[in-house]
Amino acid sequence: MANVKDKETTKVNIKIEGIPFQVEAGLTILEAAKKCGFEIPSLCAFNHGECSKASCRVCLVEATGARGLVAACVYPVAEGMEITISSPKAVAARRVSVELLLSNHNRNCQECDKNGKCELLHVAKITGAQEGRYEGEQTPVTVDELTPTIKRDTSKCVLCGRCVERCKNAHGIGVLGFENRGFKTIVGPAENRSFINSPCIMCGQCINVCPTGALMEASEIDKVDMAMAQGKYVVVQTAPAVRAALGEEFGMKIGTPVTGKMVAALRRLGYKKVFDTNFGADLTIMEEATELLNRIKTGGVLPMITSCSPGWVNFAEYYYPDQLSHLSTCKSPHEMFGAILKNYYAAKIGVDPKDMFVVSIMPCSCKKFEKNRPEMEDNGYRDVDAVLTTRELGRVIRRAGIMFDRLPDEDFDNDIVHDYSGAGVIFGVTGGVMEAALRTAYFVLTGKEREGIAFKEVRGFENIREAEFELAGKKIKVAVTSGMRGAKVLLDQIREGKSPYTFIEIMGCPGGCINGGGQPYVREVFLPNEDDDIMDTYMQKRANALYSEDERQVVRQSHNNVQIQALYKEFLGEPNSHLAHELLHTHYNPNRPRFD
Ligand code: SF4
Ligand code: SF4
Ligand code: SF4
Ligand code: FES
Q1: Over the stretch 83-105, which tens digit does the pLDDT of each residue have?
Q2: What does the pLDDT look like over 400-456, one tens digit per residue?
Q3: Which of 135, 236, 463, 464 is most buried (most C-beta within 10 Å)?
Q4: Residues spanned by CATH 3.10.20.740 within the chain?
């Protein structure tokens, strides 16, 4: 008898397709079948319960003890149960379920960015569903293209509810919900408003779980094409988390670091210079660590909270406008880097900043929103002109016919804004900004590097992590969280005057940028070579790619980046100088319009 190992000890004996198995009690039929190596088609079920509970009817099977067909995603296994996936009744029912979904779906697949990763097409294929078998009433369509971050097209929505659950699970804010009834049912912000007129923080987590093209990032590929066609001096910078996931777009295993191939691809795409946002991350640390130490020394507002995640900044402005003085005034790394490129580097290479076009490749769809903020402009130049997500970069590389896996490893452009430290690399994972800042704060306060360099106490994926450090004889307590559930706990503590912390890192997306709203979709059905528990391990694998790059770096602290030192000496003066404040710092808006 096959014995499927599991953490729990309580087991039940079942049969699937006549084969006996022993599985953990309490699993759904869908989960048990997966563990036993069977694929039951499913659409609304996703990653441990992110579904609207048996809404799609694509997973119907027969099971003894049940009356009629059951939805495998919600029906639990029981002792002695015999499950039949292949009965003619179940096969026909699953096919009809998919055909009904297709009958109310705008099937313009050739124009759809989800093509190639579309779960509806996948279940259509494995159920044998055909188009056009059922024609009937169509749901009125809403296409929301008003935000710079997300596009919502209800003509492609299968009402699976995954986005509704993800928004609640990640942030506890429930921006999305079901509206209307029957054929008029749609999913969206309250009253079918645009995202821009809702309390949405633009994190893009809902995009990541949507099985179809109903939720997509608002693409800026055309904008970059236009800048290239106009002969602009187009330079590109890439955030650390991109290199930890881009390979997935080309069938590589999750966690494969592809820094060199990514640089080679960008060069072949025609960018004049290929830079690393990590230079900006090192700059951010110099500014942020200095700001923290100044606040500690001068009795400034504490705890200070990191500010490089625009989803988190949106959350703070909307939900805690009375606590904005706790946020560091530092711009995020790619915005700092954009400001330096336009206001310093352009002059150095003899390019008029108005002819320079800065593209940021980001794991985060919210960076598209951030770059449009009025504060992200200096001397009349936008810091960053366009943001492409990791997924969009994958699309552009495929479009160009570049064989990504055959590319040589190349290095970022060797220029005056080229070097980066390991501290910059780990920005991409939750806890990374805190760790990078502590490495530098430790040096500034003690005059020496910390033995062992890393502050591993702040690593991990638990929702709220805390640690205590002694810096120059002074004890400081720090906390790290990602996703707005934890942020709410920490902000409520501050509001009540009970926060024990000096420094807090908050990132908008659970797990940090490695799990950002612009990262490659993680779907078991499209990843046949991965371990079968990939939904539990993909974040750790991406994080490991960044931690290993940090360990390979000769320089692992931002203050030891010699080009950063030169930038201060030659241009900025010192961290938190007047010029640094002008170019590298920002302010927040406590008066955002309210939509609740
Ligand atoms: S969501 Fe899927 S089925 Fe619908 S248009 Fe896009 S690729 Fe085609
Ligand atoms: S972008 Fe984020 S906050 Fe907005 S609806 Fe989606 S998950 Fe919720
Ligand atoms: S928008 Fe996408 S995730 Fe949300 S209910 Fe529709 S298909 Fe499902
Ligand atoms: S996956 Fe079971 S009903 Fe949708």
Answers
A1: 999 999 999 999 999 999 999 99
A2: 999 999 999 999 988 888 877 777 778 788 888 888 888 887 787 777 777 766 677
A3: 236
A4: 2-101
Give the position, in ligand 1's atom list, of the atom nearest the Cα of 115.
7
DSSP string of 13-36, one letter each residue: EEEETTEEEEEETT-BHHHHHHHT
The correct answer on CATH 3.30.70.20 for the domain covering 104-217 is yes
Which residues have any ligand 3 atom within 6 Å of their CB? 157-163, 187, 209-212, 214-215
Mark the ranges of the chain whose per-residue pLDDT is less than 50.
Answer: 1-8
pLDDT at 196: 94
- pLDDT for res 352: 97
Residue 42 Cα to ligand 4 midpoint, Å, equals 5
Q: What is each CA distance from 188 to 3, 319, 402, in whole angstroms?
A: 43, 20, 37
- For the entire predicted model, the pTM comes to 0.93
Closest to 99 measured CA to CA, from 57, 70, 53: 57
The CATH-assigned architecture of domain 2-101 is Roll (3.10)
Q: Give the ligand whose atoms come closest to the C-alpha of residue 43.
A: 4
Looking at ligand 1, which atom is closest to the CA of residue 124? Answer: 3
Give Cα 264 to chain centroid, integer Å.
Answer: 24
**164 C-alpha vs ligand 3 centroid, how far in Å?**
8
Atom number of ligand 4 nearest to Cα 45 = 1
pLDDT score at 472? 64
Query: CB of 500 within 8 A of CB of 523?
Result: no
Give the pLDDT confidence score for residue 135 in this predicted structure.
77
Ligand 4: centre distance to CA 596 (Å): 32
What pLDDT shows up at residue 558? 73
Cβ neighbours of residue 75 closer than 8 Å, sequence gap 6 or more? 28, 29, 63, 66
In a 3-state reduction of DSSP, which class is residue 431?
coil
Q: What is the CATH number of domain 222-584?
A: 3.40.50.1780
- Please report, as a single letter, which amino acid is at residue 114: K
Q: Which one of 220, 248, 287, 288 is the catalytic residue?
A: 288
Which of 43, 114, 154 gets mutated to test ligand 1 (max ligand atoms within 8 A of its CB)?
114
The upper half-sphere exposure of residue 110, i.e. CA atoms within 13 Å in the direction of its Cβ, equals 0
What are the residue ranges of CATH 3.40.50.1780 in the chain? 222-584
**Do 327 and 316 meet the contact criterion of CB atoms below 8 Å apart?**
yes
Is 123 exposed, middle or buried (CB count within 10 Å of its CB: 0-12, 13-18, 19+)? buried
Q: Share the mean pLDDT of the chain.
A: 91
Token couple for 120: 């509806």
Q: What whole-number distance in Å separates Cα of residue 295 and Cα of residue 545? A: 34
**Res 253: pLDDT:** 93
- Number of the ligand closest to the Cα of 206: 2
Q: Is 328 annotated as catalytic?
A: yes
